[in-house]
From TrEMBL:
Protein's name in the database: LacI family DNA-binding transcriptional regulator
Pfam families: LacI (PF00356), Peripla_BP_4 (PF13407)
Entry GO MF terms: DNA binding
Limits of the HTH cro/C1-type domain: 5-50
SMART domains per record: HTH_LACI (SM00354)
PANTHER family: HTH-TYPE TRANSCRIPTIONAL REGULATOR GALS (PTHR30146:SF109), LACI-RELATED TRANSCRIPTIONAL REPRESSOR (PTHR30146)
Taxonomy, superkingdom: Bacteria
Keywords tagged on the record: DNA-binding, Transcription, Transcription regulation
Length: 339
């Protein structure tokens, strides 16, 4: 059976209505009566009418597409953020285009420039680990191009941001470990230039101070690419093995699983003697070995909120001058813990 591409004019002709009336009825306009809307929408459903996004975009000078830029789609956290973004975007008839940076600043810039050149209506971004030069992004923002940052955000740039409560997460992680008798708490974290690194480190330090524990710089290990490469975690774990520590707070999904991999592969070190609290949105955290206490971010909600802010900005009739920083709470989940 051949596919039939019905248009608004076809519906208008069949129902003896004007094309403008049909168009407004399909958009649920207040100008059209409920009875007429019901007739039009029922007929559109009967013939399986689908709006032509290209024609709609040309008419409204919009592409009805938004770009998403993350470090790695396979990351549990980012995949759940994308699910949240899509739940909002598709309900508003926007398509999404997803790209990965693999923590590369140059690839990030190429992705941004490509999506901007293809007339994408706006971007949702988590900065790469290598990114330090924000000037090209700030230039786009000054031109009025909508960008909402989430998770890894520029702290001084004027824009919408959606983040987790990273300081509180670090603080709670240390308190959780200290209450269980841990006195030497290490910290495994990402690139020093990232906002999440600075905020979680600050929370870690605040937690140590409030628990009467000393801060030891030798117990803080940075992985520039956030665990994307296992060898950087192996190096950090080897360095920590020379220190006397009884617990660790891990600041990222990839870092957490990478740390467990490294500890399980090391000979002569009983990984189960180290108490672990780590960020992870994995759905199978209960089978991790050694067992851990997880800090779970509201990834789906973060994606939803970021998408809502972006589409509001895209559809605003006047330039947006008031920007929000949305801070969402995390949750500590203790499952099958050994401590």
């Amino acid at each position: 059976m051949a596919f039939e591409n019905y248009t608004i004019k076809d519906i208008a002709k069949a129902l003896n209505l004007s094309a403008s009336t049909v168009s407004r009825a399909l958009r649920d306009s207040y100008e059209i009566s409920a009875e007429t809307k019901a007739i039009v929408q029922a007929y559109a459903e009967k013939i399986n009418y689908k709006a032509n996004p290209i024609a709609r975009g040309l008419k409204e000078r919009k592409s009805y597409s938004i770009g998403i830029i993350v470090s790695e789609i396979a990351n549990n956290f980012f995949s759940q953020v994308i699910d949240g973004i899509e739940s909002v975007a598709y309900s508003k008839d926007y398509q999404v285009v997803i790209s990965q940076t693999h923590e590369s600043a140059s690839r990030e810039r190429l992705n941004v420039e490509h999506l901007y050149a293809r007339s994408t209506d706006g971007l949702l971004m988590a900065l790469s680990a290598e990114t330090t030069d924000l000037s090209y992004l700030e230039n786009l923002l000054k031109k009025g191009f909508p960008i909402v940052f989430f998770d890894r955000v520029p702290e001084q740039t004027i824009c919408h941001r959606v983040i987790a409560d990273n300081k509180q997460s670090g603080y709670q992680a240390v308190h959780y470990l200290a209450k269980r008798g841990c006195r030497r708490i290490a910290h495994l974290t990402s690139a020093q230039n990232l906002s999440i690194t600075r905020e979680r480190l600050e929370g870690y330090k605040m937690g140590l101070l409030s628990c009467g524990l000393d801060f030891d710089q030798k117990l803080v290990k940075y992985c520039r690419y956030g665990g994307l490469h296992q060898d950087e975690i192996d190096t950090a774990v080897a360095e920590l093995a020379t220190e006397d520590y009884d617990a660790i707070f891990i600041s990222g999904d990839k870092l957490t699983t990478g740390y467990l991999t490294a500890m399980n592969e090391r000979a002569g070190r009983d990984a189960h003697n180290i108490a672990i609290v780590g960020f992870t949105n994995s759905k199978v955290v209960s089978i991790f070995s050694p067992t851990i206490t997880a800090i779970r971010q509201p990834a789906f909600e973060m994606g939803k909120r970021a998408a809502e802010l972006l589409i509001q900005q895209i559809e605003a009739k006047h330039p947006v001058v008031d920007f929000e920083t949305v801070v969402l709470p995390t949750v500590i989940i203790e499952k099958n813990s050994s401590f």
